[in-house]
Design goal:
By secondary structure, the chain is of the alpha+beta class. The chain is 43% helix and 17% strand.
Length: 176
């Protein structure tokens, strides 16, 4: 009858209880911390992209570019959003004229770069005429800082684990 006494003594021992609490609580706290950090970084990147797109589209609207191409506008946006690492290779920009008669907006989601593919999609870039309403969509694919925790697991990801940030803006071309 020694076995039940040994088991009872083992069950009532209090040595190591702090270690058990530590092992249970620390992963939860670290996951919350990393999700908060990822969320803050995501918001900072989104604000940087929005600001860069707005400033570049303001310059375009005011006529500071002469017949800019997709690459020129992309370079301009990336220079204004310099903390976004790898912006040149991960940004796609789309400019579309919106008809003022039908007011039909694009029905498709903004296209992002698939970094695993060797060919980038061709994007529509219309500069428009005077008084045209223009829709601008910019999508950049960025890697998560902590891809296996909290917030990053809930975001739609590409084949290499990056998530897309989309900035949308609209403007009217100024008369000359």
């Amino acid at each position: 009858m020694k076995c039940p006494d040994t088991l009872r003594r083992f069950w009532h021992q209090t040595a190591g209880t702090a270690t058990i609490e530590f092992v249970i609580v620390v992963p939860v706290v670290l996951t919350l911390f990393m999700a908060g950090l990822e969320s803050g970084l995501l918001m900072t990147r989104m604000v940087l992209l929005d600001r860069a797109v707005d400033a570049t589209m303001r310059e375009l609207r005011l006529g500071h570019f002469t017949a800019p191409s997709h690459d020129v506008l992309k370079t301009e946006i990336c220079s204004r959003a310099s903390p976004l690492v790898g912006c040149e290779g991960a940004l796609l920009l789309e400019l579309r004229r919106i008809s003022r008669e039908s007011w039909t907006l694009p029905t498709t989601q903004s296209t992002c770069i698939d970094r695993a593919a060797t060919v980038a999609p061709v994007m529509q870039v219309e500069i428009g005429q005077q008084n045209d309403l223009m829709l601008v969509r910019a999508c950049i694919v960025i890697d998560a800082l902590f891809p296996t925790t909290g917030l990053a697991l809930g975001l739609p990801q590409d084949s290499l684990g990056g998530y897309g940030l989309v900035a949308v803006s609209a403007y009217v071309n100024e008369p000359v």
